[in-house]
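worker-3 :: picked Thioredoxin domain-containing protein 9
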Amino acid sequence: KMAADTPVDILQKVLENEILQSTKVVEEHLDAEIQKLDQMDEDELERLKQRRLEALKKTQQQKQEWLSKGHGEYREIPSERDFFQEVKESKNVVCHFYRETTFRCQIMDKHLTVLAKKHIETKFLKLNAEKSPFLCERLRIKVIPTLALIKDGKTQDYVVGFTDLGNTDDFTTETLEWRLGCADIINYSGNLMDPPFQSQKKYGTSFTKLDKKTIRGKIYDSDSDDD
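worker-3 :: tokens ->
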């Protein structure tokens, strides 16, 4: 004959039953919530997917529009007249005023070729300063190379010689990218407060500080000390 349950046993069974019941309620509640979340997620995911597709489509259209306007490559424009047309149709333009005999212009060309491919949101151009006397006077370009940074048809900023680029011939493309980012002429993803040339090792160069002196209207090479 089995011993009768003691009050303690009875109490334990009641408690276990209570716990089971409450656990069951909690589980049912959780199941219901999970099911609701699952259903919500599906709709939400679908909406997110749609939004993502629309954004991608927009980005693709924008990219095509930029490419059709000559973005994505570093190009030389033949005349001052072309300059006004090119600037009018693009929001962000970087124009390199160069001279064929100036060595530093070739250094600038090398970096701009890379950046034009990377930053298709911006148009990268070059214009022979000797064939553009009107523009050089109007934009007060005295030192070659000079980059004119043009936003919404207005010249906002200039990169004159290599002064802002660590004052050295062997500055990196990242340094020029940072400088253009400071002018908000490209979409820059790095930290503007941390110029790349600050972390570069200082190599001993015979390079002297760029001379910006000009004699009434005469355009100087920034590497005139080499000539």
